[in-house]
DNA sequence: CGGTTATATAACTATATAGTTACATGCATG
DNA sequence: CATGCATGTAACTATATAGTTATATAACCG
């Protein structure tokens, strides 16, 4: 279980329930009961999901009477977004083709690694 | 273990070793041995990491003689990027303040959920 | 063919995760 | 101060993950 911030953030986001919780919180703070309401799951289960989100810094716990309202803190997502930018060119069409062009320039020893283009049979 | 694409992608990215592998592959395809070289880890361990990346669709396995070169496929990251966009406003300063402004407009029952601002004591 | 190289798989261990039920704590209020 | 609501924690189960060593497969090369 890696403990660096980026890994914790990715791990926290790797669950649909937790992503739904974040979506709920993106429109405002909510109590634990309110958060739990849409889910077919016991409160302790939700409580655990919230703890994961808190440890990743994606959610902040407040205090109001007997409530412990949770609030979204999207800041860690910034790190994810920045990390992703290193790869944007790889999934954007225009540059994908440019990448393919470069790859084709240097007939690499691994030019068959999942390429869609068929390799010429040796004559 | 959630099986939806987004969860698999996030989970695959939640490990520094796997992210390093992707970084390596971002500069071109590589054999498994080449991928494993920088790591203080046995080959089967790397092999397992590669399988996780493949199942998430982030890596494609090729075939060349006795090599099974891996190639980056960043396409699933597009989904991550798009999902993240829903939250960008929350981490960008300008809109964070706008959000705080809106929150302050409607004195919410949960307005103390981790807010930095002190609530007025009831007179 | 037989050895070497590259990679994959099996079997095992340790730890983490996601859920459960049962119980404990804390605060507000009649 | 006793009761009830909101939440948290403990203890337990089942499954998944990350690593190991040992073994298997597969292709090339002399």
From TrEMBL, chains A, B:
InterPro entries, alphabetized: ArsR-like_HTH, HTH_ArsR_DNA-bd_dom, WH-like_DNA-bd_sf, WH_DNA-bd_sf
CDD domains, A to Z: HTH_ARSR
Domain HTH arsR-type: 1-92
Example GO molecular function: DNA-binding transcription factor activity
Protein name listed in UniProt: Metalloregulator ArsR/SmtB family transcription factor
Organism the protein comes from: Candidatus Lucifugimonas marina
